[in-house]
Amino acid sequence: MFVREKISEGSVYFRDGSDMKGNARNVILPYEESELREGIRYSNKGNTKITVSGNRTGSAGGAVPNGGDVISMEHLSGVTAVGKDENGLYLTALACTSVKEFDETATDSEDLTEINEGALSEFNSGRYCFPVSVDEKSSVGGCIASNRSFIRKYVRRIKVVFTDSTYMSVTRGEFKADGRRMTFPAGRNYFSFQLPSYTSDGEVGPKIEDDMDLIDLFIGSEGIFGIITEADIYVSREPAPAVDIIELGKVNNDYISNTYGKTAADDLKRVKKVLDANYILNIGNLVV
Questions:
Q1: Among 40, 178, 190, 207, who pairs with 216 as Cys (CB 3.0-4.6 Å)?
Q2: What pTM was estimated for this model as a whole?
Q3: Model confidence over 45-97: pLDDT tens digits?
């Protein structure tokens, strides 16, 4: 059974790295993914808006609630496994794992599960770290959701929970659009929809293009389509330099429309309606 508690005045859940202050009635505190899905199912049934809260390091109010409930990911943290593929070594981390915890695990990996043979011994033979330079308090899930410091190319796989509580694992290259038609199975669902008509490089919002990879729809989307619970992140010998990004959160009104055209936000709303039918995710301004 998931934990749902009333939020007191002045709670940390009302703020993030911005100057905004929000409000919400309750906080849902899952300790494992099954409890997260149960909490989402509860919210969906009551049509209760939810705001996802991680380590709240964003600068644009993305984690600041505007009514409804907060789902705090704070207990869903930790690096669990190491693996290797043709692109290099990667660590599997839960969504609220901080970059500091990620880096600490990268230097002390005795307890990691080995996904494939030889990965752990190779990993232990060198010093590795989180692939991009960001605040060490930032969460893995938050970095992916906002494409912080352009982490996109280092994300191998994500696990996403949708607002009807179904979930799926998405590995880069596994599902690709046919032109602008995206089709994929997720639990008991089978999604098929037309992607937005505009084209973006993914520096702000999701990356949209012909024959695009499904994983890129979620990276940079700031959580409007589903909640990222786990990810495989390629490690580096040293992090790439920090890059300033524009976080939309609840501050930058109309940025998508002004950048990609008046219909761009409507296109994203249409996709969101497919993946979040009751529109319960408190999304800020990405599709306002």
A1: 207
A2: 0.95
A3: 999 999 999 999 888 888 899 999 999 999 999 999 999 999 999 999 999 99
Collapse the DSSP code of 98 into the 3-class scheme (helix H, G, I; strand E, B; otherwise coil) and give the result.
Answer: strand
Half-sphere exposure of 275 (CA within 13 A, CB side): 29
183, containing H or E segment: strand 181-186
Dist CA 74 CA 30 (whole Å): 8
Q: Specify the pLDDT at position 288.
A: 63
DSSP H helical segments within 57-157, as ranges? 99-107, 119-124, 140-146
- Residues 209-228: what's their mean pLDDT? 96
Look-up of token digits 């976080």? 247
Is the pLDDT reported for residue 204 higher than 90? no
Other C-beta atoms closer than 10 Å to the C-beta of 40 total 27
Q: How many CB atoms lie within 10 A of CB 110?
A: 7
